[in-house]
Amino acid sequence: MKQMVRKQIYIKPTQEELLKRRASELRMSEAELIRGAIDAVLTTAQQPVPSRKAWLKALETMDRLAAMDVPQQGKDWTRGELYDRWPAHHPS
Q1: Reduced to 3 states, what is the DSSP secondary structure of residue 43?
Q2: Which of the 8 DSSP states describes residue 48?
Q3: Residue 31 included in any domain
Q4: Is the full-model pTM beyond 0.85?
Q5: Could you tell me which residues come within 8 angstroms of residue 33 by beta carbon, excluding any fewer than 6 positions away?
Q6: What is the C-alpha separation between 89 and 57, in angstroms, rounded?
Q7: How many domains would you assign to the chain?
């Protein structure tokens, strides 16, 4: 076995229950499952996670835009009319 570093963590009782169940289903130790989960998180975390402040600002902007009173107008053209106007773009 490769050299391991001992880490002690605290998890919620529900997490312990789910961990035990999943490890049993996969027929692996809880430690193996935890190491695999850590590897998965660390290898897929190549891009920085946006901060909570950035998410809140984005949500605020979306809420502000959704609240704008923009008159909705129907289109006055059909797809066929567009194709007639620009035949080079008509799908063959």
Answers
A1: helix
A2: P
A3: yes
A4: no
A5: 19, 22, 23, 26
A6: 39
A7: 1
